[in-house]
Please model this.
Amino acid sequence: MMLAKLAWKNIWRNKKRSLIIILSALFGIWGGIFSNGIFIGLWETTVEATINREFAHIQIHNPEFPDEKLINQFISNYDEVEKILQNNSLIKSFSKRTVIEGMASSPTSVAGVKIIAIEPDKEKTITSIHQKLIEGIYFSNRDYEILIGKKLADRLKLKLNSKVVLSFQGLDNNLVASAFRVVGIFKTESKIFDETNVFIKQNDLSSILDEGAPIHEFAIRVNSVELIDTATNILKSQLRDLKVESWKELVPELSLTSEFLYLELNIFMGIILFALLFGISNTMMMSVFERIREFGVLMAIGMKRIRLFILIILESIFLLFSGGLTGTLLGYFSIEILSKKGINLSIFEEGLSAYGLSAILYPTLPFHMYVSLFLMMMLTAIVASLSPAMKAIRLKPAEAIRTYI
Model:
């Protein structure tokens, strides 16, 4: 306790020099934390948008469907799958989908699209398409309605109540075509999604095919993101003849990037602290040279070298943490405030949407990042103090006392 008090007083002997290091640590760590929060918030917003837009938490397919995506690669025992999902307490909601590769034609143009036939009410519990409508409505009781993306509407020069013809290969391998009326235009975070996906009702598809619409996909949401892996493993054991995949398996590049992102951001904070290390080490070395005679006196009257060593280390820790903890708190509160309000990047919306990124950014930083930062700060302070501390304990009391600086 006495050493701690002495160390705290010592760092304020040269206030100007100490303040420079403290402010450097404050702004460096504040900037690092806030930057990390921006990057993680941007990526987690992207992942969440991808899940909400299309993939849900878990999907179930015929084992052959993900590779070839043919209309006849459907789930034949979908009623059994429904019962299993209904009896699973981890599952919040699910929706059946028919997914067909086809063409969308207007009087002026044609485009390849993914036709997704859904049960509108159930799909609302899985994806956010109904919340992304910028024009029109999310289906009604009328037949042959379609929802299209803003990008596709622009490409085909369509607007509300326009007619668009969908053509695709039927279950008998013959070409099937039918006209639909545009009742809603949506705009998501992804231009590619908006240009390549259309939504129709399964009842309408059943009428076109003169039989029940084939079920290619179950999209599932669980009660909590922490339960995704558990629910996926349970369903894999129950549905061995089908392909059960979590969103991490469906889009592994997103999951892999998330893992690398945390590593990269820890390295980024490490570089900031590495730069601070030299400043702290230099400051402590200057402090030691200024107090050579004082250290000589302390050792002459009986102060053990190990206590002198600890004193220098404590001074280094106090010097870094005086600014570091303040910077950490400022970073934390900055992120907390903006995580609720969000950062509006709508002026960059056009560019962001090309990569499926949201125009509203919500910074966030998980708790384990603060723990990592604390440990790195402690390590930095100790390493920065080693050279000055070694210099101090190697002094010979008789020679040190006669030194004048």
Remarks:
- The longest strand covers residues 91-105.
- The longest helix spans residues 15-55.
- The chain has two domains: 2-51+254-401, 63-241.
